[in-house]
Amino acid sequence: MSGFDKVVSSYEAAMEGLEDNMTVIAGGFGLCGIPEGSIAQIKKMGTKGLTIVSNNCGVDGFGLGILLEDKQIKKMISSYVGENALFEQQLLNGELEVELTPQGTLAEKMRAGGAGIPAFYTATGYGTPVGEGKEVKEFN
Questions:
Q1: What is the sign, positive or negative, of the torsion defined by CA atoms of 57, 58, 61, 66?
Q2: DSSP 130
Q3: First to last CA, the chain
Q4: Is residue 113 packed enough to be buried (19+ CB in 10 Å), middle (13-18) or exposed (0-12)?
Q5: pLDDT tens-digit readout, 4-63
Q6: Which of the following CATH numbers is that of domain 11-100: 1.10.3720.10, 3.40.309.10, 3.40.190.10, 3.40.1080.10?
Q7: Among 24, 89, 119, 138, which has the highest number of CB atoms less than 10 A from its own CB?
Q8: Furthest CA-CA distance within the chain
């Protein structure tokens, strides 16, 4: 796949260039609207060490959850992770890193990244343990 052509004839072509240790953003909300074909292709390719950015990590045996079966996901950036037993097991065993992000902030991170904006400020986490040691800015 080259240039800005977004139309491809297969999932293989869509995933061309995907390598170990890359970041993948997957759409959908819960189990609705997820890129099932792309997820299946990533599983088939065996790509490992992935950082996945998505609303959730699917459930056992479905959605992004199938990538956990072969430990293809290294880090999950998500707003909800509560319905996947394999996810929980890998997290508790130290095999999976998780970055929980509020849904609105997650959406803004994706929007900003797609627009080439490297950073933005949000009040989320201010005054909580999440915000400890982080830079604080005051705006009028």
A1: negative
A2: G
A3: 46
A4: middle
A5: 667 899 999 999 999 999 999 999 988 999 999 999 999 999 999 999 999 999 999 999
A6: 3.40.1080.10
A7: 24
A8: 51
